[in-house]
């Protein structure tokens, strides 16, 4: 069985984010400022970690895929607090 080729934008059009009021991931700026790798910036598939000119990190949880990659790659204890979104919120993958 073969599957039809679909480009990234096409796939993304089937993803819905039901944004909750409570951020399910928080980032401790004080810890990030001493981070030498900033591995989260390159590892997050949604590009939600943005380095600032002051050496910190801007983070936006609203388009998070809940993959957990940032939590896995972060080498600074306590920098990322990771939980799942509250019930009924978060990413929804629909068949397109
Ligand atoms: S979240 Fe972790 S990997 Fe990313 S900048 Fe902060 S300490 Fe570094
Ligand atoms: S869980 Fe995945 S998509 Fe969400 S912020 Fe972390 S790396 Fe990015």
TrEMBL record:
Protein keywords: Electron transport, Iron, Iron-sulfur, Metal-binding, Transport
InterPro entries: 4Fe4S_Fe-S-bd (IPR017896), Fd_FixX (IPR012206)
Single GO MF descriptor: iron-sulfur cluster binding
Keyword check for Electron transport: yes
Electron transport keyword on record: yes
Gene3D superfamilies recorded: 3.30.70.20
SUPFAM superfamilies: 4Fe-4S ferredoxins
Pfam families: Fer4_9
Domain 4Fe-4S ferredoxin-type: 23-54, 55-85
Domain of life: Bacteria
Listed PANTHER family: FERREDOXIN-LIKE, FERREDOXIN-LIKE PROTEIN YDIT
Protein name: Ferredoxin like protein
Source organism of the structure: Labedaea rhizosphaerae
């Amino acid at each position: 069985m073969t599957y039809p080729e679909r480009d990234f934008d096409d796939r993304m059009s089937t993803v819905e984010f039901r944004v909750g009021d409570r951020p399910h991931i928080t980032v401790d700026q004080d810890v990030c400022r001493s981070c030498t790798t900033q591995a989260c910036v390159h590892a997050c598939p949604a590009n939600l970690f943005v380095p600032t000119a002051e050496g910190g990190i801007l983070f936006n949880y609203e388009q998070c895929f809940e993959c957990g990659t940032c939590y896995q790659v972060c080498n600074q204890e306590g920098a990322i607090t990771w939980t799942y979104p509250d019930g009924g919120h978060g990413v929804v993958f629909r068949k397109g």
